[in-house]
Design brief:
The complex is a heterodimer of chains A (341) and B (365). Chain A is of the alpha+beta class and 341 residues long. In chain A, 30% of the residues lie in helices and 23% in strands. In chain A, strands 8-10-7-11-9-12-13 form a seven-stranded mixed beta sheet. In chain A, α1 packs parallel to α4 (107-124) and α3 runs parallel beside α4. Chain A is globular and about 65 Å long. Chain A starts with 18 loop residues before the first helix and ends in a 13-residue tail after the last strand. Chain B is of the alpha/beta class. Chain B has 16 helices and eleven strands. Chain B has helices at 7-21, 33-42, 44-47, 67-78, 100-105, 116-125, 142-155, 169-178, 191-197, 203-207, 220-235, 255-264, 294-297, 313-317, 341-344, 349-355; strands at 26-30, 52-56, 82-86, 110-112, 130-135, 160-164, 186-190, 212-216, 241-243, 265-272, 276-285. In chain B, β10 and β11 form a beta hairpin. The longest helix of chain B is centred in the middle third of the chain and has 16 residues, at 220-235. The chains are: A alpha+beta (341), B alpha/beta (365). The A-B interface holds A 189-191, 246, 250, 265-266, 310, 312-313, 316, 318, 321-328, 330, 333-334, 337-341 and B 7-8, 11-12, 33-34, 40-44, 46-47, 61-62, 87-92, 112, 114, 118, 136-138, 140-141, 192, 220, 334-336, 345-347, 354-358, 360-362, 364-365.
């Protein structure tokens, strides 16, 4: 009986550098990521870069489950690195993609992941120009790990940095919080919520362009609140800027189903990862314009000002609770574990 | 009480009433960890009149798990073919020398589950493994364990056992009231526990000890309402057990759930961390279900380890000390590397104080 694509799996030979590797690279990666630089198939991608400041970042993706509501590890690997570039103010240009695959991994799953990567890269306007594949024995890796590294160009005159944050600046978030983290957790643990929570995994290049267009030099800095969630990212901004940040609890956008799921698990949505959200700190005079521009895009429809930068309590994030009291919002400690009662 | 207009406005109204009516100093203990976190999260403590002091009691079943019990659970997880299925909160709780998280990293069979049913599924899908469900929790979580046990028995699942570290709330409240060191005027009672128990098992608090007891929901407004009920009881000198959490608690609780508990479990004296042995405050499986009791299935003998010194968890649990009065708080003991159980659990008092920085806020802005 002839084997179908469905039956095919990754063998140790696919990582040997020989015929099987060449076949895999050609039929799975090269065909999907097709571009003239990759097609050269040299030991290094040769890039013609425009003159200017380069942004350079790398990230590895080991998410479990590899397929989840709203995306998969492939889409995440592209969006994650693209978003790290764009929040630095860079226009993403080129990515590399390196795969560490466990022996026995279904080829059809690999193809699905690579298709997601191609779609996300094409959406973000980047080319995957270099790559690598390694196969490790069964049990030596959990299904598939992906590393992506990205290069982008920072436009002339764009200087985003937490050091530019001033007292009185506004803190804006682009939409509701905690969806990616909860979607992963729910899928991983087989939790069924009445309303399924879907990951917000998406590239942020359009949203960032809208922010810069609306806010110009009034945009101080941007972050994407991934691991550790909003609370951790705000703490990083407070520490790096030497300013205090005060946020209003009642302004924090959290969807009802996320709030419910978090309550059930005893997890705070402010500490859950997001993969398609933007935190922006802007000068007060550009808030209205930036919000208007953000809200004109689907990925920024829920944009809202959640707080402001304050002079006192430098380095701390304070939360004004619904009761009108203030408390300190700390960084994430350890792994958010569910509570028991 | 007035109906809600909106929570913020109603909270303000309740706070105003408290300022007007609280004319005696009084100390209320919240028994439940979920209340501890709600108080910290909402910043309630800093808004209350100075006369009202809130202290956190032994309200987290994780916090009060004894070192020796954890050592036993760890020894089980190290056994060949055993998978210890546990709630996430138990992972970082330190035994005398290690924790389940450390053991898992070293290769012991530890798996996080969200319900006893998950552990049951794990057992039925892996007949070659021995699945031990680490049952921790107050009365709230026991019925679900009893239901899972019933299913295991009916299906004849021989590779599923329960290590019951369940604890009971009324006996420990009694132990606290008997302790001459502990000064408590009133209890904010755990709403979830009382959905099972109702108000009857707490009558002794008012009748024998003359203290107030209000069964309370978990939002800040619930706690404010309960405090106002306590203040009014105090002013009128009529200690009683009242239900603030009427939307979930009936005076007779949930008799069906209680019957389930009684069918499978029997109260025994157990050690509470920081408090010591409390008579009738633990639950173990009845003799007729010995086959599903992990302590009887695996007759392990675990040598007693050396308990940690210097940690003030015991006094924190009794409300004798506030978390930051412990010499280890925030230095040798943080949520990342906890020493005592009150720092381990998301609902432990020390973790709540540390996380929400109650010491630093208040009048800063």
């Amino acid at each position: 009986m002839k084997k179908t694509e469905q039956d095919e799996i990754i063998l140790l030979g696919h990582g040997s550098g020989g015929t099987l590797t060449h076949q895999l690279v050609k039929t799975v990666f090269q065909d999907a990521f097709e571009n003239s630089i990759l097609d050269e198939m040299l030991d290094a991608a040769l890039l013609n870069l425009p003159h200017g400041r380069i942004a350079f970042t790398t990230d590895s993706f080991v998410v479990d489950p590899i397929f989840f509501p709203g995306g998969d590890i492939g889409k995440l690997a592209i969006c994650g690195t693209v978003n790290d570039l764009v929040v630095s103010g860079a226009k993403p240009l080129y990515l590399s993609a390196a795969f560490i695959i466990e022996e026995g991994f279904p080829l059809s799953d690999l193809r699905q992941i690579v298709v997601s990567m191609r779609e996300a890269a094409s959406d973000a306007g980047v080319s995957v120009v270099a790559g690598d594949t390694k196969v490790v024995g069964r049990g030596s890796a959990d299904k598939i790990f992906i590393n992506t590294t990205g290069i982008g160009l920072i436009p002339e005159g764009c200087h985003l940095s937490p050091r530019r944050i001033r007292s009185g600046d506004a803190v804006i978030v682009s939409g509701s919080l905690g969806e990616h983290g909860l979607a992963i957790l729910a899928q991983r643990e087989g939790l069924a919520f009445t309303t399924p929570v879907v990951s917000d995994c998406t590239p942020l290049h359009r949203l960032v362009a809208a922010v810069l267009d609306g806010g110009g030099k009034g945009v101080r800095c941007m972050r994407d609140p991934t691991r550790g969630g909003l609370a951790t990212t705000l703490n990083e901004l407070a520490a790096q800027s030497g300013q205090g940040i005060l946020v209003q609890e009642e302004l924090l956008p959290v969807r009802r189903e996320v709030a419910g799921g978090c309550e059930m698990l005893g997890i705070d949505p402010l500490y859950l990862a997001n993969e398609g959200k933007l935190i922006v700190v802007v000068a007060p005079e550009v808030v209205a314009r930036v919000l208007e521009r953000m809200r004109s895009l689907p990925e920024g429809r829920g944009a809202v000002q959640i707080g402001r930068v304050i002079e006192n309590e430098p380095g701390f994030v304070l939360l004004e609770t619904e009761l009108g009291a203030t408390r300190i919002l700390t960084m994430l400690e350890g792994e958010p574990l569910p509570r028991i009662c | 009480m007035r109906p809600y207009k909106n929570k913020k406005e109603y909270s303000r109204y309740l706070l105003e009433r408290l300022y007007q009516e609280a004319d005696y100093p009084l100390t209320a203990m919240e028994v439940c960890g979920t209340h501890t976190v709600a108080i910290a999260r909402s910043g309630l403590r800093e808004l209350l009149p100075e006369k009202i002091r809130l202290i956190s009691g032994p309200g987290c079943p994780v916090c009060v798990t004894d070192d020796a019990d954890l050592d036993y659970a760890i020894a089980l997880a190290r056994e060949k073919k055993v998978v210890l299925a546990t709630f996430g909160d138990m992972m970082r709780v330190p035994g005398t020398t290690s924790s389940l998280q450390e053991e898992k990293s070293r290769g012991a069979g530890v798996r996080i589950v969200y319900s006893p049913t998950d552990a049951l599924v794990l057992a039925s899908e892996n007949p070659h493994l021995e699945v031990v469900f680490l049952a921790v929790g107050f009365e709230t979580t026991v019925p679900a364990v009893a239901v899972a046990l019933e299913e295991a028995i009916q299906r004849g699942l021989k590779n599923f056992t329960v290590l019951s570290l369940h604890k009971l709330v009324p006996p420990v409240m009694e132990a606290l009231l008997e302790d001459p060191e502990v000064k408590i005027d009133a209890f904010i009672n755990p709403g979830h526990v009382c959905t099972i128990l109702g108000s009857e098992p707490f009558q002794f608090v008012a009748e024998r000890y003359g203290k107030s007891c209000v069964i309370t929901g978990f939002e800040a407004v619930d706690i404010l309402e309960a405090l106002l009920m306590i203040v009014r009881q105090y002013r009128e000198n009529r200690p009683a057990v009242e239900i603030q959490y009427r939307r979930a608690v009936r005076p007779d609780g949930n008799p069906v759930a209680r019957a389930f508990i009684e069918k499978y479990f029997i109260p025994v004296p157990v050690r509470w961390r920081g408090i010591g042995e409390v008579p009738g405050s633990g639950l173990v499986l009845r003799e007729e279900y010995a086959e599903w009791d992990a302590t009887r299935r695996f007759s392990l003998s675990v040598a007693p380890g050396k308990r940690r010194g210097n940690c003030a968890c015991g006094e924190v649990l009794k409300g004798l000390k506030l978390p930051y009065e412990c010499p280890l708080f925030g230095k040798a003991c943080t949520p990342v590397k906890p020493v005592g159980p009150c720092m381990v659990s998301t609902e432990g008092s020390c973790a709540a104080y540390y996380r929400y920085g109650e010491r630093k806020v208040g009048g800063a802005i």
